[in-house]
Amino acid sequence: MPAPPATVKPATGHTTKLNNGKSSNSNSNHTLSNSIAHLSDSRTNLTVNTPTTCQRLSEMFRRSIASSTQSSSRENTYEEIYPGPDPKHIMGSLVFCIHHKQGCKWSDELRKLKGHLNACKHDATQCPNKCGAQIPRIMMTDHLQYTCTMRRTRCEFCQSEFSGAGLEEHNGSCGQEPVYCEAKCGQRILRGRMTLHKSKDCAKRLRRCAHCQREFSADTLPLHAAQCPRAPLACPQRCDAGPIPRGELEAHLRDECQSLAVSCSFKEAGCRFKGPRQMLEAHLESNAAAHLSLMVALSSRQGQQIQMLKSAVSKLSINYTGTLLWKITDWSAKMAEARGKDGLELVSPPFYTSQYGYKLQASMFLNGNGPGENTHVSVYIKVLPGEYDALLKWPFSHSITFTLFEQGAQSGQGGVAESFVPDPTWENFQRPSNEPDQLGFGFPRFISHELLHSRPFIKGDTVFLRVKVDPSKIVAV
Q: pLDDT of 129-179, one tens digit each?
């Protein structure tokens, strides 16, 4: 009766691998061989798992130990000890071209990459002109045509043939190349003719003025020549003088030109002579008496004009406000003169009560008059003949106030004031005539000398007296 079939179970986590290598233990190998043969004869199912990395390393270590005990052992290869991936599997891997960042879109198996690079337009190859450059195939045409130092090419201006390096040296020095003028005149000139252009034709070249010796650019020299003060000109009066510098021509005409027509020196007096300068001297000698008569008449006319001007100025300075503020300076000197001379009267500038009103004038006796003589200052007012008296109402009837001011008063303006209203029967205020006027009307004892010096009426040797006319006839105090 046959023996029951045996089942070989692999160790947990490992796969059983049969080894054809020789073992130092013959009994173990024999037993293992019998077991494999027995398994072959039987129809027992054997489950074999795929070996893991750890299992392979363990098996290799076991085989290494076993082979090292053999007396007739051999050296194992690197592939036997460290088996790698299958080369056929690697060569079938999908790869991209090494120039895919430059734009090559090829991708295929690794075994085809070398063949692709032999034709890839982005792969660099040696320049066929042997200039030493490695150029991508896609740029080789431009390189051979424009940048290869060993290429043969012609200068576009002089048509001479050069190598690429020679053309670069030739560029910038070709005499047939048109370039802009170095003096910035705006023209393009062949480089070989630049020196001749700058010396003869350039509008910006420097040229010296033949008259004043100053330098100007050629395009501005004609403008200067039309204004140069040293340029010689002929006298416009065609006198005998030679060419005259433009800057001296005006002085020549004014002072020297004998052909210039000039007026007589007594033109302002009325002489109407006008002729060449060379005849002026003879005219003056032959007309001395006539010129003297003209000057006398001129002097008379000028005197009349002066009087008219004085009258106009006087009218402009007349006061038409009806109030006179009379400033009397040099008081001490005038007082001393009044004490030494009897009846010395000071008169004020005339003033009007309005634009077309009465004309009045104030007067003052510093040493007094009548009852106030030697003790008081006397003040008076009188009516003068005016331009509009025929239109005014007579007798004069406005109230009049005299005020002598204290100077520098701390609270308000202090002083002494006296007023009166004219009586219609007083002759002083009737319509005045052109005959010498009488004294006028006022106050012989206006202010005493003692009071004048006891209060600040005099300051800076000056006194201020105000005369105010009031048409309302109200007496002011």
A: 778 888 888 888 888 777 787 777 778 788 777 776 777 777 777 888 888
The gap from C-alpha 100 to its chain's centroid, in whole angstroms, comes to 58
Between β-strands 346-347 and 359-365, what pairing exists: parallel, antiparallel or unpaired? antiparallel
Name all domains of the chain by residue range, CATH numbers in brackets. 1-84 (no CATH), 318-470 (2.60.210.10)
Q: How far apart are CA 327 and CA 348, in angstroms?
A: 9
For residue 470, the Cα-to-chain-centroid distance in whole angstroms is 65
**pLDDT value for 271:** 92
CA distance 58 to 52: 10
Angstrom distance (rounded) from CA 183 to CA 200: 12
Distance of CA 311 to the CA centre of its chain: 56
Name residues whose C-beta falls within 8 Å of residue 418's C-beta, 6 or more positions apart in sequence. 379, 401, 402, 443, 446
Cα separations (Å) of 194 from 146, 159, 179?
Answer: 29, 20, 9
Range of lowest pLDDT (19-33, 90-104, 433-447) = 19-33
CA angle 331, 335, 341 (to 5 degrees): 145
Is the Cβ–Cβ distance between 360 and 319 less than 8 Å?
Answer: no
With a cut of 70, say whether residue 42 has pLDDT above it.
no
Residue pair 397/424 in contact (Cβ under 8 Å)? The answer is yes
Residue 470 has pLDDT above 60, yes or no: yes
pLDDT for the residue 64: 58
The pair of structure tokens assigned to 330 is: 């040099």
355: burial class by Cβ within 10 Å (0-12, 13-18, 19+)? exposed
Classify residue 324 as exposed, middle or buried by CB count within 10 Å of its CB (0-12, 13-18, 19+).
buried
In whole angstroms, what is the distance from residue 348 CA to residue 400 CA? Answer: 15
**Contacts with 430 (C-beta within 8 Å, 6 or more apart), sequence order:** 394, 395, 396
Q: Is residue 449 within 8 Å of residue 404, measured between CB atoms?
A: no
Spatial contact of 346 and 366, defined as CB atoms under 8 Å apart: yes
pLDDT digits (tens, 9 = 90+) for 67-76: 555 544 455 5
Which residues are 399's β-sheet partners? 470
Of 249, 432, 444, 411, the C-alpha closest to 350 is: 432
